[in-house]
Design a protein that fits this description.
This protein is α/β, with parallel strands linked by helices. The chain folds into two domains: 224 residues, 3-Layer(aba) Sandwich (Rossmann fold); 68 residues, UDP-galactose 4-epimerase, domain 1 (Alpha-Beta Complex), CATH 3.90.25. Strand 5, helix 6 and strand 6 form a beta-alpha-beta unit. The chain is globular and about 55 Å long. It starts with a strand and ends with a helix.
């Protein structure tokens, strides 16, 4: 049996996929979630493994700190606990800030106590509405502290500061992953992110809702590629004290993606246009040179292949409810 790993936010989209992969690799996994946005159903398969332990807790709470004796033999920590889509974090802005600030400090304190390694899940939102393209880790961003998205963007950035301080002051083995749009059928139907919205709308022949004129761009990474990148970050000593972009550099406009989803799903949906949300980034594309150099990582799943898998899985979910 390999080491013991803690995943915060284990009932979320990335957390549950990561836990499943680590269990397949014969690790013992302890998962923590407070079900703020995570789903109980995401734990169903994980709980079938004798190597999985679940603890319901909020990483920003005193209760989490009181659990430290139960977590004294943790070797690695993936800190994924946080709402990650506007549909969720706009409803719970203070909880989002707490998870990424107080929660991150608590996780780093646990790591320091156990001499454990940490991967902190940050976000491409740290770049704000970028003025350079593509975005490398050296870019400091074009951000707004006074707006509805700031609870997520800015708390993730402060979480990165905590990681920097624990690395530089205490030599904590921490790595920061700036994750770009990740997708698969594991995203909840009400998640509010581009792929989950478009695929569900297309399969139900509902209007596909595009915000703005659809010329804004995003880069979409299939979940297995993102998970592989996070695990490589944990494994590689060269990633200690580093911020690394994890995302697919293939760039699509939102309108291109809407048309592609419609085509692949043989949908009769109309594409409709709606006002652009405040501070919605106009361009988003990762420079992954650092990931290639330090991790030997590049995405392997083509967007069309990933979308076909996603559409098939969502269709099966819809059909099973009928």
């Amino acid at each position: 049996m390999k080491g013991r790993i803690l995943i915060t936010g284990v009932a979320g989209f990335l957390g549950s996929h990561l836990a499943e992969e680590l269990l397949l690799r014969d690790y013992k996994v302890v998962g923590i979630d407070n079900f703020s946005t995570g789903k109980e159903k995401n734990l169903k398969k994980l709980k079938q493994s004798k190597n999985f332990t679940f603890i319901e807790a909020d990483v920003s709470s005193n209760y989490f700190m009181a659990l430290q004796n139960q977590l004294e033999d943790i070797d690695e920590i993936y800190h994924l606990a946080s709402p990650a889509s506007p549909a969720y974090y706009l409803k719970k802005p203070i909880d989002t800030i707490d998870a990424n600030t107080l929660g991150t400090k608590n996780v780093l304190d646990l790591a320091q106590k156990n001499n454990a390694k940490v991967v902190y899940a940050s976000t491409s939102e740290a770049y704000g509405d970028p003025l350079i393209h593509p975005q490398s880790e050296k870019y400091r961003g074009n951000v707004n502290t006074w707006g509805p998205r700031a609870c997520y963007d800015e708390s993730k950035r402060l979480g990165e500061v905590y990681c920097y301080l624990y690395y530089s002051l205490f030599n904590t083995k921490v790595k920061v992953a700036r994750i770009f749009n990740t997708y698969s059928a594991g995203l909840a139907n009400d998640d509010g992110r581009v792929i989950s919205n478009f695929v569900n709308q297309a399969l139900l022949n509902e209007d596909i809702t595009v915000y703005g004129d659809g010329t804004q761009t995003r880069s979409f990474c299939y979940v297995t590629d993102t998970i592989r990148g996070l695990i490589l970050m944990m494994e590689k000593e060269s990633a200690n004290g580093q911020i690394i972009n994890i995302g697919n550099p293939k760039e699509y406009t939102i309108l291109e993606m809407a048309n592609l989803v419609k085509k692949l799903s043989n949908s009769k949906s109309r594409i409709t246009f709606h006002p652009l949300p405040i501070d919605d980034p106009k361009q988003r594309k990762p420079d992954i040179s650092k990931a290639r150099k330090l991790l030997g990582w590049t995405p392997q799943v083509d967007v069309v292949d990933g979308l076909n898998k996603t559409i098939t899985n969502y269709k099966n979910q819809i059909d099973s409810k009928e």
